[in-house]
Amino acid sequence: QVQLVESGGGLVQAGGSLRLSCAASGRTFSMYTMGWFRQSPGREREFVAAISRGGGSPSYADSVKGRFTISRDNSRNTVYLQMNRLKPEDTAVYYCAAKLYTDARFEYWGRGTQVTISS
């Protein structure tokens, strides 16, 4: 099992940047595929980005492609989400997630960190 704690959220103006971090417990972080999701009021949680165990093959939602970058540091048990050129529609609670098996659903979740983008 893995426990996830997000940090780095906040309030920024449109066009600005934020970097989210997700610290994972346990010694087997490198075995997990990691992802970021977000949820805004009245909307379902949506996929943002994911990264494979070794850090390759990142994938992104079309809405963030070219603006967000997911990365991980297995030596620090941490996954990051660098968010640039932020838009008001990026406002949401951002969640970190983990899964052991590539074809499975994400099964471990953090509590989320609020990101608010002002226009």
Account of the protein in words:
The chain is an all-beta fold. It has no helices and eleven strands. Strands 2, 4, 5, 6, 9, 10 and 11 form a seven-stranded mixed beta sheet that branches. A four-stranded antiparallel beta sheet has the order 1-3-8-7, with no helix packed on it. The N and C termini lie far apart (40 Å).
Short description:
The protein has 119 residues and is mainly β. 0% of the residues lie in helices and 49% in strands.
Features:
7-stranded mixed sheet; 119 residues; 11 strands; 4-stranded antiparallel sheet; single chain; mainly beta
Share in helix: under 10%
Uncertain parts? none
Structural class: mainly beta
Q: Tell me the radius of gyration.
A: 13 Å
Portion of residues in beta strands equals over 45%
Number of strands: 11
How is the biggest beta sheet arranged? 7 strands, mixed
> What's the end-to-end separation, in Å?
40 Å
Q: Helical stretch count?
A: 0
Quick check: average pLDDT? Answer: 96
Task: Give a topology summary.
Layout lengths: L3 E4 L2 E4 L4 E7 L8 E7 L6 E6 L7 E2 L7 E6 L4 E6 L8 E8 L8 E2 L3 E6 L1
